[in-house]
Amino acid sequence: MKKIFLAATLVATSVSAFSQNFQPPLIRQHIEFLASDELEGRGTASLGEIRAANYIADIFQKLGLKPYGTGGSYFQPFETSIAIEGKAHELTGRNVIGFLDNGAAKTIVVGAHYDHLGRGFQGSSLSPDSKGKIHNGADDNASGTTGVLELAKYFVENDVKEKHNYLFITFSGEELGLIGSKHFTEKPTLPLTNIAAMVNMDMIGRLDDNKGIIVSGWGTSPAWGKLIPALAKSQNLKYTVDSSGTGASDHTSFYLKNIPVVQFFTGTHSDYHKISDDADKINVDGEARILNVIAGLLQNLDKEKSDPEFIATTSNPHDGTTTSNFKVTLGVMPDYSYSGKGLRIDGVSKARPADKAGILVGDIITKLGGAEIGTIYDYMDILSKHEKGQEVEAVLLRGKEVKKVKVTF
Ligand SMILES: [Zn+2]
């Protein structure tokens, strides 16, 4: 019964205001090519990466975007050291960059990484015996790359001259540690002071309507809390927020340059970083709805009196003037890639409740305030039920050891 109801909701959504903007069959076409075996998992500096870069550059060119890489091309090469069979090699990866010039003073970066784990020799494959096997990376991140391509098409083909320019970037080297986006922010092809905001898409292909999307960087500007809720509602999209500007994707590189960032994510799944992250599992209708939210966000930013204000989230996570679902927080960065039971900690903010309680990076919190944590959603649910100043017990797994600590929110 619930399924039938959901299907009805989807039909209703597909005829809503933005329905004509993004075509699911086009989304599928891009993802099927980028995540095909031909591209061999798009490992940084591999032939598959170059072929994916060519595909992206061809589309940028057809759309009439200005080449904004180096030497008048769409490509921005960068050197990176990759260990192959135990020996380090200096290899060249490349970002692909196209500029939609609306003659505006400020530019918004729309980005996603297009590299993945190749044949499992680089990055962090979670498949057993992964070496030599193609990791197609359909959700991670052919889906976000497709988002960049389709948003570029949308903003080129609409009849509006926006009040911002758009710099469309697909990054490489992300899986090796955000190398492409770090390179861009160190050697930008457009002055960073001209960049008003950065919108990132990393894994937007597995929308589950029961879980909704995760929007990160929420605390880096009040603009996100002001504009995104109504847009999400218009697409019947549930969302949870993560305040932090730093996380496991390329928006981090921009946040660290004091640029407001927002990152869209449909959540982790059992195919994450495995050879089974394939195109046939992508929810293309869901991705179209997410792209509607992002297009709407970019359009609504144009209607604001000023550009998004930047807030450093490392000094005031989950509070200040931003909208947040929670009154309390632990001050941790969850590991979104962890698919086991509990909440694995990827980062701990100094002098916040988790830090004060002695919780460390790598700990897995299995119980908080008497409630079991199965997934990150349970954690968010628990947070929403607590007040500042309350003391609760956290049960955590540190290696094989079970520990109990007192946390004061
Ligand atoms: Zn990714």
TrEMBL record:
Signal peptide (residue range): 1-19
Source organism phylogeny: Bacteria, Pseudomonadati, Bacteroidota, Cytophagia, Cytophagales
Keyword annotations: Hydrolase, Signal
Molecular function in Gene Ontology: metalloexopeptidase activity
SUPFAM superfamilies with a match to the protein in the record: PDZ domain-like, Zn-dependent exopeptidases
Domain PDZ positions: 342-408
Gene Ontology terms describing biological process: proteolysis
Organism encoding this protein: Dyadobacter luticola
Name listed for the protein in its UniProt record: M20/M25/M40 family metallo-hydrolase
Domain Peptidase M28, chain residue ranges per copy: 95-295
